[in-house]
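Changelog note: in this version the structure field was regenerated for every chain. One regenerated record is shown below for reference.
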Amino acid sequence: MIRLCAFADESGKELEVQARELCRHGISLIELRNVNGKNVADLTDEEAVACREYLAANGITVWSVGSPLGKVKLSEAEEHMTKVERVCYLATLLGADKIRVFSFFEAGDADFEAVKGYLTRMTVIAARYGVRLCHENEKEIYGDTLARIKTLIGAGIPELGFVFDPANYIQCGEGIPTALEALFDKTDYFHIKDVVAATGQLVPAGHGDGCIGEIVDRIAASGRDCVMTLEPHLKVFEGYGEIDNTALQTAFTYGSNVESFAAAVEAMKQVLADHGHTETVLEDGTKGFIK
């Protein structure tokens, strides 16, 4: 069974808009990244509690915190540990038990031991708060390629999970079938962002080379329950500059963030339908996709 989650800040910066659009599309899980123009890591205690309560009142759960942890230079990692502690605490206020993280800029193969050391410290901090850190394969950080992700997995860092983002792998020159075969069993959940390899243009799920349908088939064949978080990047949105310093290249044009978000959701639902999945109301009243 597959459940959809989303970085709803791609529909609008206001929490009310994010909740409205999630409800409109029958998505009850959010990977919280920006709230009312503020990065999740910068929320006050009161803002975090109010956010959780508002989302809950609309039937939405903070499934993961889409944090910027680890998205700093390796030389800044030591002072970054204070932010790690803060975000882990915020996760408890938000009701989330997962936090998306990265493995530092300007970190090469020779820096592996330092990267391992800091990630280990981060997971130890997270464990104190009962949350799991899930590493995303972001371009230009240490863990950007298949080889380096395999190195991180082999390092045995306690309780470090992994997010599989197909578009990021393609942007690093990796083939998705090979990466999926190697990493599927080690992947906690998937980010859904698709890209045309030849042009670098971001496109809705199923329109690029991200093998989204093959990922869906692999999940179904495994018999596991899995979450797929929409992170489409189809139009510039509030906070995009904090996420990616490159110009956004897209193959489709949308009039608004609400429109681009809707296109992303519908494209993913079409991929699921094309691969034999039916949208179903689950026992808890939320929706999932079952084959």
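Spot check on this record: The chain has ten helices and 14 strands. The chain has a mean pLDDT of 97.
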